[in-house]
């Protein structure tokens, strides 16, 4: 599996970009998966549902399975947060895994940067940034790609990962 990261500050447009990239990749016959990092607590379950009751009772893992999808919830409890490598090992084989967030992870990534967000670049701290996608012209030492030209961004990622 090839991995490629999309990272940027909150509000920079990472999720929107990924949402636009995935159909372009799948239209080329690629199987794409995604891992999204979140700094916020989250829960895909709801109190009162059977699966939530099982987790509250102490189950380490609860799998929901139906005709259209299945989902596995793993409670970390006292375990350390898994690394990106450990999370990637949980995925089924695919052609490309897009990784949202994980700025410091050792994988090639695109920094999504909008000057209007008012945040600094982070590629100076994380050497795995291979290019920057922006909605403005930038003076930096990396390739700068037009954030609004999603097909060109898709082509860049596929060339970089050698999937094109």
UniProtKB/TrEMBL annotation:
Gene name for this UniProt entry: mobB
The entry's protein name is: Molybdopterin-guanine dinucleotide biosynthesis protein B
Please list the residue ranges annotated as the Molybdopterin-guanine dinucleotide biosynthesis protein B (MobB) domain. 4-135
Which Pfam family, any one, appears in the UniProt record? MobB
